[in-house]
Amino acid sequence: MADMMWAGRFSKKIDDTVNAFNSSIAFDGRMYRHDIQGSIAHATMLGDCGIITKEDSLQIIDGLKGILSDIDSGKLELDPSAEDIHMFIEAELTKRLGDVGKRLHTSRSRNDQVAVDIRLYLRDEIQEIHDLVKKLAVTLVNMAEQHTETIMPGYTHLQRAQPVTFAHHLMAYVFMFLRDLERLQDVSKRMNYCPLGSGALAGTTYCTNRKQTAELLGFTAPMANSLDGVSDRDFCVELNCALSLIMTHLSRFSEEIIMWCSWEFKFVELDDAFATGSSIMPQKKNPDITELIRGKTGRVNGDLITLLSMLKGLPLAYNKDMQEDKEAIFDAVDNVKLCVKTFIPMISTMKVLKENMRNAAARGFINATDCADYLVKKGMPFRDAYKITGTLVAQCIEKGLTLETLPLDDYKAMTELFDNDVYQAINLETCVRERKSEGGPSPEAVKVQIEIAKKSLDI
Questions:
Q1: What amino acid positions are annotated as catalytic residues?
Q2: pLDDT at 6 over 60
Q3: Which of 42, 79, 80, 145 is deepest in the core (most CB within 10 A)?
Q4: What is the pTM of this model?
């Protein structure tokens, strides 16, 4: 009981089972650096404001730096029986400094301490995730530059629809990830306000300087309301939303890679270092990485539901339920980092099978719209051209032909507007090259998209 910082009110030792149930150091121990960072800022402010002596302030700061160094080096190990990382560090400081160490918590509650720690921790994690997603986007842009002429079928309803290029397809994901980068920046901006000094919920009677601690910790400003300061976890939810979208984009891409690796598609082949085999079928080469990413997306989405469910019924201000925020958001952060780190080299080493893509594009009548457009450009209303082209496709299917191999007489039997130049108009290279509209798949249009992305990525 003597080890508990809040022991004064209680006459019994806490039950061991309850202590284990209540403890959070197993997962919040990762915030030791940020807890010490926050405590150093707090101790600096206490000394500068004369709330404690300057000598005590400096001694506390030195003690905290010593603890940080010892944890970093492995000399000091976290005590798994400690209630949380905050109490562990304060207890260690008191053990080293005696009564001076006990002065650190003056005008501070564990509620605002926890709130500032998680913001500091997630702020660093957001930057790391931002850098990883940016690296992925750069990887895709570089790959797109190599495939502006690589024709493949574009799909709707998973049916071959119209011809595009592999570069065009890749750039669609680049713009998804660019939006993810913007969302991460937005989250970081909104969460960058300092709750330290909010106390348990109602501030403090000491004459503190919250602006100083906010500035020392690199925050934009102190949080304006002390109740909100200790009870807000919107930033965890918002970050998890952004992470869920990153995972959704990775999962969609993974699904396509899984299909593209199959013999039914065979558009790409993963490097052996990023695939696995079967325990019984020697011919198998499985895209397990992409399957795991697809599965982990559900896990990150589950973390989001955990956070939303945790918060939805909480009265102000702090409640112990909020301890659950860390396991959820830490899990989401860890899994996104793991997935993106693995995805980047898998994509960069992936072999693109251009001929297979081109052959697939040659089947499925994906130039039918271009055939209809050919007639429209010669004066026919689109709906009439649409109907004629549909009839020609049906004839091709019946005869085992394609639009490219259908005799000109069959075309002319539908309308005299058809001439020999129809074969050039429905040529796949022509179909792609002429799709010059902004955002389209023509090499010209895709190069514009690449430049837009490069500007956003500063490359």
A1: 157, 278
A2: no
A3: 42
A4: 0.92
